[in-house]
């Protein structure tokens, strides 16, 4: 019987997914922090115009690298959030992927925002493969 990973296990899985990315990719990402929560905060959902916390699986917060400045760097580290419960719910609808693959996909997607890519650009890049 499969058990549902708790927040600590999910955090470990997320960090492992990030660690599996190529070294050059991680080096280019710089000082990014990765956090796991059960759901996005109500303020975050309101700011994004998302009425249902179940509809947000990941989020990038920070200044994309293409807009960051050496002269005036952002005082806060950029952050990626993965939301455990929505991801687990999505997994139930995706028999074609494992939880590890889904976590990796969201980490890469949010890192794409860190690099300054739009959702549309990431979608086009994924279609080219």
**Mean model confidence by pLDDT:** 85
Task: Sum up the overall morphology in one term.
Answer: globular
Q: How many structural domains does the protein architecture include? A: 1
- Largest β sheet strand count, sense and barrel closure: 3 strands, mixed
The arrangement of helices and strands along the chain is HHEHEEHHH
Radius of gyration, in Å, reads 15 Å
What is the fold-level CATH name, i.e. the topology? Zincin-like
Helix vs. strand class: mainly alpha
Percent in strands: 5-15%
Walk me through this protein's architecture.
With about 130 residues, the protein is mainly alpha-helical. It has one domain: 2-Layer Sandwich (Zincin-like). It has a three-stranded mixed sheet.
What keywords describe this structure?
11% strand; Zincin-like; mainly alpha
Summarize the SSE layout with pairings.
Layout: H1 7-19, H2 23-29, E1 33-37, H3 42-48, E2 58-61, E3 79-83, H4 84-92, H5 99-114, H6 119-128
Parallel strand pairs: 1-3
Antiparallel strand pairs: 2-3
Helix pairs in contact: 1-5
